[in-house]
């Protein structure tokens, strides 16, 4: 089931043409209509796919190869430019269809607001869902400059839907005073660090369905300059890959994931989409059982 039957763009390396027999479905959400600083993440999905051509199929971390699994790259949703509300509805409708088909949704963003309709659909299917959110920004605002549909609001919307104690945030190093206060009081909030607090949290999530959302700006700008709201003081790509492995080797059940906020125009070296494509490979091999 390709999103756009006329889609002729590159697909993620080793993608199958067999939707029916694919457990995981890669799909793009090329939206950056509500960003507060630099646009360009709508080009992220395409560049992540192109960068994947340089990947080895084999992961020496996991001793597994994507040649041995079947996944399908459906292409990008054709979102109505500038219409955030309708775009979110379209994302939700598509992911809802994937879940009805028993698929593992693996999304490529796009700004972080695109994760909100995915969480909504996930929560419908998994009422005991927990969210692992790895990001430089808290995304716990009610609105930004009067706009409730903003890339700074998706996690606050998830709190209102799921309850804050079902949400686990890591790597946060930017936000308003109010966001940090709210996070510390209502969410499993772990600022600045990722790997150490994640290891401590995972045993308490054993057996639960988990959605994992990763904003590429959790990485230090030296590792990923190609993002709309770069934030100094971040983690390394080595630590982020290790975090994915910690999740995949734990007793949680990952039911979906995404990588968002890759804005390739700000990175002529292409290291940001290169990192993102490797994260996708490790997610495919580690999360999709």
UniProtKB/TrEMBL annotation:
Cofactor annotation comment: Binds 2 manganese ions per subunit.
Record-given protein name: Agmatinase
Protein encoded by which gene: speB
Function: Catalyzes the formation of putrescine from agmatine.
Enzyme's top EC category: hydrolase
Family stated for the protein in its record: Belongs to the arginase family. Agmatinase subfamily.
NCBIfam families with a match to the protein in the record: agmatinase
Keyword Transport annotated: no
Domain of life: Bacteria
EC number: 3.5.3.11
Signal peptide positions on this chain: none
Organism: Chengkuizengella marina
Catalysed transformations (reactions): agmatine + H2O = urea + putrescine
């Amino acid at each position: 089931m390709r999103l756009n039957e006329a889609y002729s763009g590159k697909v993620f390396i080793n993608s199958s043409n067999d939707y029916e027999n694919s457990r995981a479905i890669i799909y793009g959400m090329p939206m950056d209509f509500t960003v507060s600083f630099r646009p360009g993440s709508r080009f992220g999905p395409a560049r992540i796919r192109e960068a994947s051509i340089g990947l080895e199929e084999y992961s020496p971390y996991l001793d597994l190869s994507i040649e041995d699994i079947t996944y399908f790259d459906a292409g990008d949703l054709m979102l109505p430019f500038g219409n955030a509300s309708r775009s979110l509805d379209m994302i939700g409708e598509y992911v809802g269809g994937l879940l009805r088909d028993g698929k593992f949704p693996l999304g490529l963003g796009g700004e972080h607001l695109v994760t909100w309709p995915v969480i909504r659909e996930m929560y419908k299917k998994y009422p005991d869902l927990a969210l692992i959110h790895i990001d430089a920004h808290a995304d716990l605002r009610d609105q930004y400059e009067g706009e409730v549909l903003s890339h700074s609001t998706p996690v606050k919307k998830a709190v209102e839907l799921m309850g804050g104690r079902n949400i686990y945030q890591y790597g946060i190093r930017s936000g308003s005073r109010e966001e940090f206060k709210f996070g510390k009081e209502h969410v499993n909030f772990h600022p600045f660090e990722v790997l150490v607090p994640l290891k401590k949290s995972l045993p308490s999530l054993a057996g639960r369905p988990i959605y994992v959302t990763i904003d590429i700006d959790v990485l230090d700008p030296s590792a990923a300059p190609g993002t709309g709201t770069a934030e100094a003081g971040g983690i390394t790509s080595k630590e982020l890959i290790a975090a994915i492995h910690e999740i995949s080797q734990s007793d949680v059940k990952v039911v979906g994931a995404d990588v968002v906020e890759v804005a390739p125009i700000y990175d002529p070296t292409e290291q940001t989409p290169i990192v993102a494509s490797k994260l996708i490979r490790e997610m495919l091999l580690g999360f999709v059982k």
